[in-house]
Amino acid sequence: MKYPVDRLVITPQDVDLSRSPLAGQLDAETYVLGAFNPGLTRLANGNLLAMVRIAEALRHPVRSGHVHAIRWESDSARGRYVLDAWPLEYVDTADPRKFMLRGGGWRIMALTSLSWLLPVELSPDGLEIVAFHYDRAIAPAYDFQCYGVEDARISRVGDRYLMTTCSVSPERHSTTLYSSEDGLDWTFEAIVLDHQNKDMLIFEGLIEGQYWAQTRPLGDLYFAYPPGSEWRAGPSINLAHSPDALFWKPWHKPGIRPHAATVATARMGGGTPPILTDEGWLTLWHGVEPKEVVGVYRTYWSLLDKNDPSCVLRTEHEPLLESDAELTRPLEDLMYLRDVVFTTGIADAGDHYVVASGEADLACRITHIPKSRFAG
User: Fold this and answer.
1) Does this entry carry the keyword Hydrolase (predicted)?
2) Cα separation of 16 and 29, whole Å?
């Protein structure tokens, strides 16, 4: 479906790496592989704040028979960034974003880029850049973030902004929580979910005095549904609740599950923090159709009961958003992925929503979606 306002607003060319947290620390050239997957919220001044994931990559990761990874280490007063070299005969570089180490009884991955978060202030409609807040960038600061901080999701709950991020390291692939009073200055709170529990989205409001969140634990093994079930086994969107947004208990009922009727959502995960409407909690999420190495990522939506978010009131198999080659055509020389739109933020704008997505793991896309699109 086409929307009247749908464009890229932040691209790799907009980022000034001379102001990067990595600047001057590596004896190697880096570039912006992607400026994408923006968390989104509205500031007190009416402007929007996009927390953009900057994937800063090595221009030449392979040299002298080795592939190199960027890593932050804490053995100095403020930490430093270093390069690790892996012999090419031990790795698989089929995916341009990462490489896999061969051998062993489980999958082991490393990255040729390191991600940090850049706050970008946008106009109220999300279509113009107001300011880049490099001085408020969020970069690795702990050992459990040594391979980067990724994919912010921002929720406004009462007077507080809560932001979940994915922190990446050999120790754990964890969900970390930051909080803010103004949406610009962020304080690290805690690790809130442990290994490979990704796409944590905190509901923008309490339910019976409790914080609620969508989660998406990953694994290599899933148990089958019985033959003829309407559900497909695999990654699904679960629910958890908490008295304080720090300590989370999984909810005993399932959340949003892949339907057996379509392969387009065979793999799924959360997209935007659920927001409360007159009819219930509106949540946008991603479904992945298997294709080649990465798959086809599309955005879907569901409406959840306002008192019991495990109850799906309405949803559609038809995607809400798909990747758009016309949007990225001016960036063709930078493209390394196709068929990917990954929606990560939403803000109310009266008769429509401002929806923020990562396009092709490359740039930030803003789409204005009429509220009528979700009407029953």
Assistant:
1) yes
2) 14
Pair of tokens at residue 301 = 């939506």
> 282: which strand partners?
275, 303
Using the predicted structure, report yes or no on whether residue 376 has a pLDDT greater than 90: no
Sorted by sequence, the CB contacts under 8 Å of residue 332 that are 6+ apart come out as none
Task: Compute the residue count for the chain.
Answer: 376
Distance CA 298, CA 174 (A): 24
Instruction: Please name which of 340, 335, 338 lies closest in space to residue 322, comparing C-alpha atoms.
Output: 340
Q: 312 - beta bridge partners?
A: 304
Amino acid at 121: E
Helix, strand counts (H, E) of the chain = 1, 27
The structural domains of the chain, ordered by start, are 5-374 (2.115.10.20)
User: What letters, b where the CB count within 10 A reaches 16 and e where it falls short, cover 105-126?
Assistant: eeeebbbbbbbbbbbbbbebeb
Q: From CA 267, how far away is CA 248, in angstroms rounded? A: 24
22-31, 53-62, 75-84, 231-240: which range is least confident on average? 75-84
Apex CA 124: angle with CA 118 and CA 125, to 5°? Answer: 100
Asked if residue 214 has pLDDT above 90, the reply is yes
CA distance 192 to 211: 13
What residues contact 284, with CB distance under 8 A and at least 6 apart? 271, 272, 299, 300, 301, 320, 343, 346, 355
Query: Which CB contacts under 8 angstroms, 24+ apart, belong to 157-160?
Result: 157/202, 157/203, 157/204, 157/205, 157/206, 157/211, 157/245, 158/206
Residue identified by tokens 């796409």 is 199
Q: In what order do the strands lie in the sheet with 62-63?
A: 62-63, 66-73, 80-87
- Which token pair is 156? 């406004």
Count the alpha carbons within 13 Å of 6 in the hemisphere toward its beta carbon: 18
Contacts for 104-111: CB closer than 8 Å, 24+ residues apart: 106/220, 107/220, 110/69, 110/84, 110/86, 110/147, 111/69, 111/70, 111/147, 111/148, 111/168
Structure tokens at 113: 């880029």
The DSSP letter of residue 268 is E
Average pLDDT, whole number, for the chain? Answer: 95
List C-alpha distances in Å: 132 to 56, 180, 187, 354.
Answer: 16, 18, 19, 19
